[in-house]
Amino acid sequence: MSALVLDAGAFLAVERGDREMVARLRVAQQHDIGLRSNAVVVAQVWRNQAGRQAALARLLRAVEVCTVDERTGRDAGVLLGRAGTSDVVDATVALLARPGDRILTSDPKDITRLVQAGGVPAVVVPC
After folding, report:
1. Contact, 81 vs 101, CB < 8 A?
2. SUPFAM superfamilies per the record (predicted)?
3. Rounded to whole angstroms, how far apart are CA atoms 61 and 104?
4. Which of 37, 64, 85, 95 is the most exposed place for a label (fewest CB within 10 A)?
5. What pLDDT, in 10s, does the model give residues 18-29?
6. 77/94 Cα distance (integer angstroms)
7. Cα distance between residue 50 and residue 105, in whole Å
8. Nearest one of 109, 98, 103, 93 to 124, comparing CA atoms
Protein backbone atom coordinates (compact mmCIF):
# COMPACT_ATOMS: atom_id res chain seq x y z
CA MET A 1 0.00 0.00 0.00
CA SER A 2 1.33 3.44 -0.85
CA ALA A 3 1.72 6.24 1.66
CA LEU A 4 2.23 9.96 1.91
CA VAL A 5 5.59 10.66 3.48
CA LEU A 6 5.50 13.97 5.35
CA ASP A 7 8.39 16.34 5.88
CA ALA A 8 8.29 19.28 8.28
CA GLY A 9 6.64 21.50 5.67
CA ALA A 10 3.53 19.33 5.60
CA PHE A 11 3.22 19.42 9.39
CA LEU A 12 3.76 23.18 9.51
CA ALA A 13 1.11 23.70 6.84
CA VAL A 14 -1.41 21.87 9.02
CA GLU A 15 -0.25 23.81 12.08
CA ARG A 16 -0.90 27.13 10.36
CA GLY A 17 -4.35 26.00 9.21
CA ASP A 18 -3.62 25.42 5.52
CA ARG A 19 -6.99 24.08 4.36
CA GLU A 20 -5.57 22.62 1.16
CA MET A 21 -3.06 20.51 3.08
CA VAL A 22 -5.66 19.39 5.63
CA ALA A 23 -7.99 18.38 2.77
CA ARG A 24 -5.17 16.54 0.99
CA LEU A 25 -4.41 14.50 4.10
CA ARG A 26 -8.09 13.74 4.75
CA VAL A 27 -8.55 12.47 1.19
CA ALA A 28 -5.48 10.27 1.60
CA GLN A 29 -6.90 8.75 4.77
CA GLN A 30 -10.32 8.22 3.15
CA HIS A 31 -8.56 6.24 0.42
CA ASP A 32 -6.57 4.16 2.94
CA ILE A 33 -3.32 5.87 2.02
CA GLY A 34 -1.10 5.83 5.07
CA LEU A 35 0.74 8.82 6.49
CA ARG A 36 4.39 8.29 7.43
CA SER A 37 7.15 10.45 8.90
CA ASN A 38 9.90 10.09 11.47
CA ALA A 39 10.85 11.29 14.92
CA VAL A 40 13.43 13.77 13.62
CA VAL A 41 10.76 15.56 11.59
CA VAL A 42 8.58 15.69 14.71
CA ALA A 43 11.48 17.35 16.53
CA GLN A 44 11.64 20.01 13.81
CA VAL A 45 8.01 21.03 14.29
CA TRP A 46 7.09 20.31 17.92
CA ARG A 47 7.75 23.33 20.13
CA ASN A 48 5.05 23.54 22.77
CA GLN A 49 5.51 21.55 25.95
CA ALA A 50 2.04 22.52 27.20
CA GLY A 51 0.29 20.87 24.24
CA ARG A 52 -0.90 24.02 22.50
CA GLN A 53 -0.15 22.58 19.09
CA ALA A 54 -3.57 20.91 18.88
CA ALA A 55 -3.69 20.59 15.09
CA LEU A 56 -0.23 19.06 15.05
CA ALA A 57 -1.08 16.67 17.90
CA ARG A 58 -4.21 15.50 16.04
CA LEU A 59 -2.21 14.92 12.87
CA LEU A 60 0.47 12.98 14.73
CA ARG A 61 -2.15 10.49 15.97
CA ALA A 62 -2.79 9.55 12.33
CA VAL A 63 0.88 9.33 11.29
CA GLU A 64 3.16 6.33 11.51
CA VAL A 65 6.19 7.93 13.17
CA CYS A 66 9.26 5.84 12.40
CA THR A 67 12.36 5.76 14.57
CA VAL A 68 15.73 7.01 13.44
CA ASP A 69 18.37 4.60 14.68
CA GLU A 70 22.07 4.13 14.01
CA ARG A 71 21.45 2.17 10.78
CA THR A 72 19.18 4.95 9.50
CA GLY A 73 21.82 7.50 10.45
CA ARG A 74 24.49 5.67 8.49
CA ASP A 75 22.19 5.19 5.50
CA ALA A 76 21.29 8.89 5.61
CA GLY A 77 24.96 9.85 5.58
CA VAL A 78 25.66 7.62 2.58
CA LEU A 79 22.64 9.05 0.77
CA LEU A 80 23.78 12.63 1.47
CA GLY A 81 27.17 11.78 -0.02
CA ARG A 82 25.60 10.31 -3.15
CA ALA A 83 23.22 13.24 -3.62
CA GLY A 84 25.72 15.96 -2.77
CA THR A 85 23.37 17.54 -0.24
CA SER A 86 23.74 18.15 3.49
CA ASP A 87 20.33 18.23 5.23
CA VAL A 88 20.20 15.18 7.48
CA VAL A 89 16.45 15.48 8.09
CA ASP A 90 15.76 15.54 4.35
CA ALA A 91 17.83 12.39 3.97
CA THR A 92 15.88 10.59 6.69
CA VAL A 93 12.63 11.62 4.99
CA ALA A 94 13.83 10.31 1.63
CA LEU A 95 14.79 7.02 3.27
CA LEU A 96 11.18 6.56 4.44
CA ALA A 97 9.88 6.42 0.88
CA ARG A 98 8.90 3.12 -0.65
CA PRO A 99 7.89 2.40 -4.24
CA GLY A 100 4.60 4.13 -5.03
CA ASP A 101 4.81 6.62 -2.16
CA ARG A 102 4.47 10.38 -2.50
CA ILE A 103 6.66 12.68 -0.43
CA LEU A 104 4.98 15.94 0.62
CA THR A 105 7.78 18.44 1.08
CA SER A 106 8.54 22.13 1.29
CA ASP A 107 11.96 21.36 -0.20
CA PRO A 108 11.22 19.50 -3.45
CA LYS A 109 14.58 20.25 -5.07
CA ASP A 110 16.72 18.58 -2.40
CA ILE A 111 14.26 15.76 -1.72
CA THR A 112 14.15 14.97 -5.45
CA ARG A 113 17.96 14.79 -5.54
CA LEU A 114 17.94 12.45 -2.55
CA VAL A 115 15.19 10.20 -3.94
CA GLN A 116 16.98 9.96 -7.27
CA ALA A 117 20.32 9.23 -5.57
CA GLY A 118 18.66 6.50 -3.50
CA GLY A 119 16.90 4.96 -6.47
CA VAL A 120 13.49 4.99 -4.80
CA PRO A 121 10.60 5.29 -7.25
CA ALA A 122 8.65 7.81 -5.18
CA VAL A 123 6.97 10.98 -6.40
CA VAL A 124 8.00 14.28 -4.79
CA VAL A 125 5.09 16.67 -4.30
CA PRO A 126 5.61 20.29 -3.18
CA CYS A 127 3.48 21.46 -0.28
Report:
1. no
2. PIN domain-like
3. 18
4. 64
5. 999 999 999 999
6. 12
7. 27
8. 103
